[in-house]
Amino acid sequence: MNPEEVKYIVIHCSATRSNMQYTAFQLDRDHRKRGFRMAGYHYYITRAGEIEPMRSLRSEGAHVRGYNHCSIGVCYEGGLLPDGTPADTRTREQKVALRGLVSYLRERFPQALVVGHRDLSPDLNGNGIVESHEWLKVCPCFDAFAEYLKPQK
Ligand SMILES: [Zn+2]
Q1: How far is the CA of 146 from the centre of ligand 1 (A)?
Q2: Is the pTM of this model over 0.85?
Q3: Distance 40 CA to ligand 1 centre (A)
Q4: Which pLDDT tens digit goes with each residue over 116-143?
Q5: Which residues 6+ apart lie within 8 Å of 11 measured at CB?
């Protein structure tokens, strides 16, 4: 992927329960089972806040339909409560790691906008805003666009 073509940094959740561990190894294995060459995201952030590189930034990801050719995919472990309800389950360590990774990617791709997966759902009523009733998925279960709109000091 040509760095100038990166328009979005897309945040995802693994949609796994916060009381269950889902490792980078499991993620990679599950994506390969679905027929991908490797995990679809570029980075995975575990509940412990470890940043696992999954795919080279030069390689196109497989994480958001229609936008893979112009985006970087970052996924955090979790996104569901123990009962399966979607929620922002990010640990303090994950928040710190995410913010650090987002700043790093912003420096590398200054033109890119940071969004959540759900923000790239189709704008069905064409009013220029992707509203919550238009979301195809709730991923990443928090408002990534608002949270990373401004670099934090
Ligand atoms: Zn997603």
Answers
A1: 17
A2: yes
A3: 10
A4: 999 998 888 888 888 888 787 899 999 9
A5: 74, 75, 76, 98, 102, 114, 115, 116, 117, 140, 144, 148
